[in-house]
Amino acid sequence: MPGARDTPTPIDLFGSAVREDPVDLGLACGLIGLAADPAADVTASLSALDAYAALARPLLLDATTPAEQADALRVALGEHAGFAGYAEDYDDLRSSLLPEVLQRRRGLPILLTVVWVEVARRLGVAAYPIALPGHVVVGIGDPTGSYALADPFSGGRLLSGHDAAEIVRRSGLPFHHRHLEPAPPTEVLLRVLANIRRLAADREDAPTRLWAVRLSLAVPGHPAALRRELGEVLGRSGDYLAGAVELAAYAAGIEAAEPAAAEAARRSAQMLRARLN
Prior knowledge:
Blueprint: H1 10-17, H2 25-36, H3 42-60, H4 66-80, H5 98-104, H6 109-122, E1 127-132, E2 135-141, E3 147-151, E4 157-159, H7 161-170, H8 185-202, H9 206-217, H10 225-236, H11 240-254, H12 259-274
Antiparallel strand pairs: 1-2, 2-3, 3-4
Helix pairs in contact: 1-2, 2-3, 2-8, 3-4, 3-6, 8-9, 9-10, 10-11, 10-12, 11-12
């Protein structure tokens, strides 16, 4: 008879979801919510996306151009459903968790963009996240041809190319047209989890930071430095041996390319091992 250890964890489920092709962003973000709260209902989140798609469908019947489709989604999701974001959402963990965002209809730009993209996908509308520095928006249409831009954080306000360039420049970077390219699902998920990790670090919330790091490590193409972060968080959580093992593994992986960083990681591992005595 299968035991409790045979039950997949949220991290197991997330790892499977992010290796699908294509990645279901709604499911993956729902599983991030499940990692944060075991009582979260991922099926209910997906059903909510279905319901919002049903709400938007009549408004899209006569929308044929990308701009018309973007405006129809703005009316459905921004005006009628009330999806938008506020400055205080940046300091609220719930703003990075899809089940909470769907319930509260407010969140970070990246989560609101996921809602738009997933609703559009259910309606057969081409939509994709655009990961501008510091602010994610949504593209509707063909990224290599005719497309429209919208900002779900501001209730779906339609953006011009100049508006997008201004967002990039506010981050201190020069604008380049590559900034308007679709962001792959794995990049979106890593960015969602990076937001959670930063907030958890600021709050010294080691348990939240730990599951966010573990989920990040399940994403293909994750940064190697996540292994070091895992070791550091485990050490701060009191699991000195596991932290030392992760730091040593990180050091071995970067030895050839970054010998100084590898040596620093090994010293940190030795310090954690010393605390076992």
